[in-house]
Amino acid sequence: MTPPNASPAADRKLRRLGGLAGLDTSIVRVLASGTWDYDPDPRGAQRGWLEGPAILDDATDEAIALVESLPEVLTRDRAVAEVLAALEAADDVLLERELAHAGATGSYRHLSPFATVHFLRHATEERLASLWRDRPVGREDLVRDLFLKVFRGGSVDRDDLAYCWVDLVVDLPDVAHEQPVPWWPALLDAIEGPPMAQGLTELVARARPHTRGDRHFRQTLLEALSYAGWLEVGGWARDRRFWPDHQGALARHSSANEWTVPLRFWTERGGRVVRERAGNEKPRSLVGGTGVP
Predict the structure, then answer these.
(1) Do residues 155 and 220 touch, judged by C-beta distance below 8 A?
(2) Which of helix, strand or coil describes residue 48?
(3) pLDDT digits (tens, 9 = 90+) for 185-218
C-alpha cells in the first residue's frame, strides 16, 4: 500500500510547512502521516484526513525521538498540572519575539503559543479541567495535535486541553532565525485609522500590508491580539475573563461567528486599540485571576 504524502505535490507542501515552522521536513512528514494526506485523489483534490498512528518507516532519529517522547496516554490531571505550570512560567519577551516572527513569516507554529497563553489567561485547575474532552487521549492524538499546531496554529483547536498541552508543554525543535522588527505598531496605526465600513473583513485587509500569510492566518493572528487585550471589543475587556468560557456567545451576523470571542463582536459593538499593552506587558500571573489583568 502506498504511504500517504508520496506525491511531488505533497512533498512540496510538507517542505513549505516545515520551512515556515522551522522544522525538518521529516518531522512534518511523520506528524502528517497519521493526520492529513496531501496526495491528490482521482479528481485532483487532496485526500484529506487520515486516522491511525504516525508512520515512522524511514523517519529520521529526530522525528522518531519526538514521537516517542510523547506519553502513550495523556491523563487529564497531568495535562491540567503541566499546562498550569507552563502558564505560570510564560515569558512575555519570548512570546512576543515568536509573535514577531510569526507575523513576519506567516508561521502558525510560532503564533500558536502566544495565542494559547493569552486565551487561557486567568486559568485555574478547575477551568482547565473543563476543557478536557471526555475521551482517551493517546499518542496518536498528540501527534495529530502537533501537526495541527503547524497546519493551523490551534485556530479551531484551542479550547481542547490536549491541544493546549501539546502547544505549551511539548518542545519542538526550531532553526535559528533573525529577529524581525515588530510589525504591530504599524498594524495598530492602521486599525486606528479611518472608521471601518466593513468590520472584520476590513480588519483583515488592514493587516495585509503589515503581515504575511493568507486570510485565515491573519484572522488567527488578530484573534490572538484580542485575547491579549491589544484589540479590545466594547463590553469585552479581558479583565478577569477566561476566554474559553465565552466562546458560546454568538454575534447577530452569522459570518462574524466564524471568528472567536471577543473579536467576533468587533463590528457589532465596536473596538479599540489598547496600545499600552502591545509589546509592553508588565510582569504578572496568567493564572488564577491574579496579577495585572
Answers:
(1) yes
(2) strand
(3) 999 999 998 877 778 999 999 999 999 999 999 9
